[in-house]
Design goal:
By secondary structure, the chain is α+β, with helices and mostly antiparallel strands. The protein has a three-stranded antiparallel sheet with strand order 1-3-2, covered by helices on one side. The N and C termini lie far apart (69 Å). Helix 1 packs across helix 2. It has helices at 14-24, 47-61, and strands at 7-11, 31-34, 39-43. Helix content is 37%, strand content 20%.
Length: 71
């Protein structure tokens, strides 16, 4: 018997979508359906955790400003 899963439609840039796909690739805990280049259906119950993981990844990839200055 099929099982229904509550999902949330997420619209994002392709670059952010690529990060979400990478986060999901190990355990498949977040994505219900990959719709197109900018849309995903995410498990409603996992959305807060996915947001946390995405923020962590983005924080790790942001470059710190150069403090040496050009004086």
């Amino acid at each position: 018997m099929p099982k229904a899963v509550k999902g949330v439609l997420v619209e994002c840039d392709p670059s952010i979508k690529a990060i979400i796909l990478k986060i999901d690739q190990d355990k498949h805990d977040y994505i219900v359906e990959d719709l197109d280049d900018q849309h995903l259906v995410i498990k409603e119950s996992q959305l807060p955790r996915l947001k946390e993981r995405l923020e962590e990844v983005l924080a790790d990839t942001q470059q710190m400003p150069d403090e040496s200055g050009s004086d």
